[in-house]
Amino acid sequence: MSAGSATAGAAGTAGTAEADAPPGGRGSGGAAALLGTDRRRFLLVLALAVAVGAFTATVPLLRDWFDLRVYYGAVDTWVHHGGSIYDYRVPGTAYGFTYPPFAALGMLPMALVGLSTAIVLALLLNLAALTLVVGILVGPELRRYGWFGCALTACLLALLEPVRDTFSFGQVNLVLLALVMGDAWLLSAGRGRWAGVGIGLAAAVKLTPALFIALLLLGRRRRAAGVAMAVAAAATALAAWAAPDASRFYWTDALWDTSRIGRLAYVSNQSLQGVLARLVAPQEPSRELWATLALLVLCVWARRTSRALADEDWTAAFALTGLAACLVSPITWVHHLVWLLPSFAVLLRRRRLRVAAALYAVLCSSVVWLWFDDASGLDGFLGSNTYAWITLGLLLWLPAGQPRPVRPALSRRASATPAAPSTAAPAISAAPDQSRPASSGGAAAVGRALFAGGAAAGGRTAGLEGTEETEGTEEGAEGTSGSVPTGSTRPSAAKPQSSSERASSYTADPPPA
């Protein structure tokens, strides 16, 4: 064997060894690096989890399952003591059950267990609902990062005030959001046969999600809208059959009495009516002004949602509807703002990372509670309504629909694109020994094939950059058929494009545990 052959053989052996080495490194060194990376990730997640736990246990106001105690007491009074659903009051407060009777019907299993077991079941149910919502909104993205991405997402969500309040109160908002987002997934996946069931159930438990029925009508999903209305009506009728007196009381009295829910001016109320109430406190806000503002919000919602629906962007459409529902509802407590989670998913998908990070930081800060005692003055008007301003800003500027091309950039690219081929074919002289023109025979066939490929590429480029260029390319293709384009007439290759109810509100001080 020659020296050259030996060298080549050694190189081939080395190349085979490198190809067989595991990804991320060679041999045991790559495995050690991978294990080191996993160890660092685990330590990072562990440190973050400890920090989140310490923050949650010390900084925020813990709610002591207040709303769950309301649900449990109302169901217990109804089942075991022969009272009405709306008779129960939390000891030492004026707060009782405020949802439609069907909500109490759905909570009947709590009558079979103790309060501690009900708290555990509520935690598990909220955790399952949150997992489903996150899976629908950003599941494909999270799967790319494996356990590390899921762990980081869990820590980040645990810090978000609406989420942690929902868990701490024992609220139902995440369950309702999961029902609604289930319908959003069915519609976006083209499985609309069962779409509307989740929205109908959510609207029967709480009135705010009824706006999503209007979304289905706006999107011309009449079948899904009909299913939602039928499910909501059937659930309401079932509750009326099971608790006729409670149903009569709710629809004729309790529904219209906002004082049963809490003070409109309470700082946790981050709806339009809450903003107006704090502005004129201690007087009552103008109902006419509130209705006018709510109508304007709904008009903005309809316009922006229509654009999203025109592009089949159901995630953005549902996100905008959740924002509008929070604004127009008479009372939107902080924990109701879990309806903002779809908006964060839209921001992340559109790479608005800085905006998402800034809004997330504010929603973790509990900043509105700085004006718990006094929301007067300019600072009170701006600061105590911070979450309402975030909701309104997202309604106005959340990216919706497919991104539109930037016209100035397209114009610059169009001007830099070589001109389309001329309709006059360039003359090609024959060689002295040829008896026929070069436009026929094998050479001409090759020329026509080359031009056909160039014209197709030029057509794709023109289709992306402007109608006029497309027409010019087609005319050039017809005018030069059968001839080989020169360097000045061959079209350029395609260029890549840039691409309410809160039964637990406090009137002054937190209630006793």
Describe the structure.
The chain is mainly alpha-helical and 513 residues long. The model is unreliable at 1-27, 406-417 and 422-513 (pLDDT under 50). Helix content is 63%, strand content 0%. The protein has 22 helices and no strands. It starts with a helix and ends in a 34-residue tail after the last helix.
Strand content: under 5%
Low-confidence stretches: 1-27, 406-417, 422-513
* Overall pLDDT: 78
Shape: globular
Helix content: 55-70%
Short overview:
The protein is mainly alpha-helical and 513 residues long. It contains 22 helices and no strands.
Looking at this protein, list some descriptive labels:
513 residues; mainly alpha; disordered N terminus; disordered C terminus
Map the helices and strands.
Blueprint: H1 3-20, H2 27-58, H3 66-80, H4 101-106, H5 115-143, H6 146-159, H7 161-169, H8 173-188, H9 197-205, H10 211-218, H11 222-242, H12 244-252, H13 272-280, H14 287-310, H15 314-328, H16 341-349, H17 353-364, H18 377-383, H19 386-397, H20 407-416, H21 441-465, H22 467-479
Helix pairs in contact: 2-6, 5-8, 8-9, 9-11, 10-11, 11-12, 14-15, 15-16, 15-19, 21-22
